[in-house]
Amino acid sequence: MKLGLGTVQFGLDYGITNRSGRTGAEEVGLILETATRNGIRFIDTAALYGASEEVLGNTLPADHDFNLITKTIRFDAEKISAEDVSRLERAFASSLTKLHAASLYGLLIHNANDILVAGGEQLMAKLSDLKRQHLVEKVGISVYTSEQIDSILNRYEIDLIQLPVNVLDQRLLAGGKLSDLKAKGIEIHARSAFLQGVLLADPDSLPAHFDPVKPHLKRYHAVLKERGVSPVRAALGFLSSCADIDVIICGVDNHDQLMELCHEAGSPPDLDFSSFALDDESILSPPLWRVG
After folding, report:
1. Closest CA to 147 of 127, 163, 123
2. Contact (Cβ atoms closer than 8 angstroms) between residue 48 and residue 110
3. How far apart are the first and last CA of the chain?
4. Rounded CA gap, 252 and 22, in Å?
5. Which residues is 70 bridged to in the sheet?
6. Do 143 and 172 contact (CB within 8 A), yes or no?
7. Contact predicate 152/98, CB 8 Å
8. What confidence tens digit (pLDDT) does each residue in 167-177 have?
9. Which of 26, 121, 217, 255 has the least CB density, counted as fewest CB within 10 Å?
10. Strands 67-71 and 136-142
């Protein structure tokens, strides 16, 4: 199954359509049981996801066979120093402790710009060192844009990349970037499948920031209704049909939502999704949303 489990909700109140807040520990246990039963093998977390790593470590059974992926802390500096490298190493050691893990499947640079500033190569060198020590199997990067991908691939070799793709945000598909990554043997994990719930919500319930695209979203939902396709199935089906994508990272608030995702993640619907693509960065990029 292409589905992977995102866990930001385990540690933070996350998502503009999230009404239930942070997921409780008992519910996390039910989510993990549901994931196991349905063949989900990848779990994505991060040092910056609040208590997510700790919650996972305290809830996962000792004999689990999930592939765990976490991310580095952010540095947001104009220049990376030796102390920053030490901070990365300490934070990673803390992640291992919190996750009750001797090693992880993947470690990603959380903020792509951290390895594009002066001295950024020191951070990637440390990731490579952790890989040589067999503390991680694959190292890589979490990105937002095609420009970041180009800049990183011009400087570094990576094993794994996490990037945003969804029905509205098809920019990396249209530019052939995913095919380029796959040709280099890079494992591709897609996030933002539902654009933080925007693709699933009634457009009229969305904040005023989305007013310019509400007619577009209403047309999208009207087509789905006419074809008898649920918004969940459409969003997952679109990504499942992209052969270059290896894993679709989806966060859930409870195990019922995860069961719905597993049920709907079958064969993709016969729809021309290209007509629903947008190129408005203020809509496609959550950090730019004005919803406060």
Report:
1. 163
2. yes
3. 36
4. 10
5. 107
6. no
7. no
8. 999 999 988 89
9. 26
10. unpaired
